[in-house]
Amino acid sequence: MTDTSASKPEVDFPTGPAPAELEITDITLGEGAEASAGSTVDVHYLGVEFDTGAEFDSSWSRSQSINFPLRSLIAGWQVGIPGMKVGGRRKLVVPPHQAYGPAGGGHQLSGKTLIFVIDLLGVS
């Protein structure tokens, strides 16, 4: 079992306009196995809206990490997680076209730029 003791991150309220392209920032570099585009990843994550800072989802709030094949996730995760190593923490700022699409797209987060902080716990 992977160590899930890292604490839930806090996201500083962003300043300036939302980015037009995906922004990837490593907060902590991992030293374990590296995620690739075809990986299934075990992660803890926090998601907040760029414009309001409101949290919309957090695996920490459920006290349980999640396990997903990368190819089944939003484009921002499919591009932003490969190259990350187990033990790392990364922030992704994901514009709408790499998240849930333009406003009116039918998802509650359509049209929104999203910020995710992701802890990579495992790769398979």
From TrEMBL:
InterPro entries, per the entry: PPIase_dom_sf, PPIase_FKBP_dom
Residue ranges of every copy of the PPIase FKBP-type domain listed in the record: 38-124
Reactions catalysed according to its record: [protein]-peptidylproline (omega=180) = [protein]-peptidylproline (omega=0)
Alphabetical keyword list: Isomerase, Rotamase
Protein EC: 5.2.1.8
MF term (GO), any: peptidyl-prolyl cis-trans isomerase activity
Superkingdom classification of source: Bacteria
Region annotation Disordered: where it falls in the sequence: 1-20
Signal peptide stretch: none
Pfam families named in the record: FKBP_C
SUPFAM superfamilies (alphabetical): FKBP-like
PANTHER family, sorted: 39 KDA FK506-BINDING NUCLEAR PROTEIN (PTHR43811:SF19), FKBP-TYPE PEPTIDYL-PROLYL CIS-TRANS ISOMERASE FKPA (PTHR43811)
Family: Belongs to the FKBP-type PPIase family.
The protein, known as: Peptidyl-prolyl cis-trans isomerase
Organism: Nakamurella antarctica
